Amino acid sequence: MVQVLDILKLAHKGGIEPSMDLLYEKSSQIPGSFQYQINRYYAQNSWVAEDTGMLVYHYNAKRPEENYMELRYCATGNRYCEERTCGQCNQLPTTNCAGKHQTVDVFKFHFNATFLHQFVHNVKLSNQKDEVLAFKYPNAFTKVFPVSLQKRKVLDELLNHSYSGSMENIFVNAKIHELLVYSLECLVDEKEEGFTCKFLADESGRERIYQAREILLQHIGDPITIKELSRKVAMNECYVKKGFKEIFGTTIFDFYQQQRMEHAKYLLYEKGLSVTDVSALLGYSSISHFSAAFKKHTGLKPCELLK
Questions:
Q1: Which of 129, 188, 209, 221 could form a disulfide bond with 243, CB atoms 3.0-4.6 angstroms apart?
Q2: What's the number of CA atoms in the CB half-sphere (13 Å) around residue 174?
Q3: Residue numbers of the domain that contains 41
Q4: pTM
Q5: How many helices (DSSP H) and strands (DSSP E) are in the chain?
C-alpha cells in the first residue's frame, strides 16, 4: 500500500501509484493566478491513514522567476458517487450505479512568487510566514503537518458544493485563500491558538465574521461599504474589521479587491468576456479604473488574459 507521504510527493509530478483508480479530477490554470488540481482515487484495499498536509517552498536566488510555493494534502474517509440523480441513495449497488466509493483525495495548490507578493506588498517582514510569502526566506524546505479541523473543513467544502460557473469560481477562490491562511500557521505552531479579540471566543461572534465574508462574496459586482456590511451582520464596524483581520489574516478591503480581481481573471480568460464587460460586471465606473486596479493586483493588463 502506498503511504500518504508518497502520494504527496507524487502529486507535484502528476503521478500516482498504479493500485489507485482515478474516479474524478478537476484543475484550473489561469495565467497570473494560483493553479490547483484535485484528484479523487478509489483504493482497491481498505485505507487507514491520518490526513496529512505538505508545504513545499521552492527558492532559488539565482533564478527567482522559478520560485514557487505549493500546498499538498491527502484526505481520506470521504465517499464519491458518479451518479448524482439517485435522489435518496442507500449506498447499495443498483442497475446503473456501483454505490459510493470510499476515496483518497489528493489536492495540490501551486502559488508562484508574483501571486504571493501581493500579500506582503508594503508590509514589514516580521516573521517566517512573511518572509516565505515575499520569497525572502533564503532556504528551500518541505514541511509536513497534520490536517487540523479547520483545514479539513475547507477541503471538504471544495469537494462538496453545489456552485457552478462564475459562482463556483468565486467560491473556490475564497476557499483556497482561506486554506492558505490556515496552512501557513504550520510555520509557527500547528496547535490552535486563542483569539486576541475576546468577542471571537463566542461562536456567535465568529459566525458573524464568516457571514460578513459570505456577504462580500455575494457583492462581487455590487460594492458594499463596511457600514452596510456591519449593519447586515448586526455587529459594530470596529469589531467587524478587527474580527475579519484576525480570522482571515487580511483586511476587508484587501480581501474584497483580491476576490474581485481573481474573478476578473476567470471572466477574461475562461469566459472570454471583453474588458468592457468585465469592468461593468464588477461594478467599476470606468474601464480605466478597472484596468488600473487589475494591473496593481496582478501585474498584468486585462487584455493580456484575453484568448
A1: 209
A2: 21
A3: 1-84+96-193
A4: 0.72
A5: 11, 6
